[in-house]
Every structure is written in C-alpha cells, then in structure tokens.
Design goal:
about 180 residues, mainly alpha, two-stranded antiparallel sheet, 10 helices, 2 strands, globular
C-alpha cells in the first residue's frame, strides 16, 4: 500500500513538473552539468577537484531556494519547487514550499497536493536528516492553516519515520489527539 502511494505520488509530481512553464532557464541550466572539474589555487598551487553530480545538484538547489525566498507568487513557488524536484529530488523541494508558506501565498501553498507529496516523501527520512527537518519546517510554517490535515496525517498510514516525526511534532504542539496516544508510545 505504501509503495503504491509512493509510486502514485512520484507520478503525480512528475506530471506536475511537466507543466512547468520554464520561467527560470538559468536555474534549469545549472543542473545540466553532470559532474565537473573545479580548479582552484591553494597556497600558490593549482588544485583540481571533481564535483560530483550530487555536489552540483546541491549547489543548484541552494540557488533555487535563494530565488524562492520572499517570493509570494504561487506559480513561481511551484515552478521553483518543480525545478528541484525534476533535477534533484522532490524531498529537496520542500524548503521552497516552506518559503512560499511564509508569504501571502500561504493559504494556497500549504494545502497544495504537490507540496504535501514532497513533504510526505521527505518525512520518510531519519530524524535529523535534512529532508525530515525540512518537512517539519513546512508543517510548522503551515500550522495555522493546515493544523487539521497535519494532525490527521498521523492516522493516514504513516511509515515508521513519519510516525516518529509526526508524534514528536504533534506532542510539541500539544495537538496529539486522544486516539493517537497509543500510536505514539
């Protein structure tokens, strides 16, 4: 069941990504490098280092997130998140949605199904991992408009990591429903 949801989530996110308008070609182009050599000078000596595709992707994600900061356009936030999702991974797109949730776009971004799918994927990471931390930050930013959905998320068949994160999050918010106490022992 969880695998079917995961596959469905990934297909839905991919379909959403296919509709992206391409307003940020400079950011799209950043990801086109599949690893690269970087030459620097250290102590008067030329040093060559290989930057892996993951390193390049991480650097591009930082640039996309910087573009999202303060952006109140729902379409812009969704497109920037889509760039990261398509070129890196959807879990890494959650901070972009969180930035959108901190603006006037909050009431549209917080209930957005793509944002929730990305946060759901991110929440399946171990405690302290950048992805799970990002998902919890998204839920925190959306708390006032999506409290009911976040509380109900725990009951919707969470995996072990999701359950762990949601139990702690809801306990910290003092929002754990009476019926959920047995889930969070």
């Amino acid at each position: 069941m969880a695998l079917r949801f995961l596959v469905g989530s990934l297909l839905a996110l991919a379909a959403s990504a296919a509709m992206a308008a391409g307003k940020y070609p400079e950011l799209e182009g950043c990801y086109q490098v599949n690893g690269q050599l970087e030459e620097t000078v250290e102590g008067g000596k030329k040093v060559t280092r290989y930057k892996s595709e993951a390193d390049v992707s991480e650097g591009c994600n930082v640039k996309v997130l910087a573009k999202a900061k303060g952006l109140a356009s729902v379409e812009g936030i969704k497109e920037l998140a889509s760039i990261i999702g398509r070129h890196s991974n959807w879990q890494s797109a959650v901070p972009v949605y969180t930035e959108g949730a901190k603006t006037a776009a909050k009431k549209t971004i917080c209930p957005d199904s793509d944002a929730w799918r990305a946060a759901d994927l991110a929440l399946s990471s171990p405690a302290g991992h950048v992805h799970s931390t990002a998902a919890l930050a998204f839920f925190d930013a959306c708390w006032d408009v999506a409290k009911k959905d976040i509380v109900e998320k725990l009951d919707s068949g969470s995996d072990a990591y999701q359950k762990e994160h949601l139990c702690k999050f809801l306990k910290d918010k003092k929002a754990l429903a009476a019926s959920q106490h047995s889930l969070c022992k």
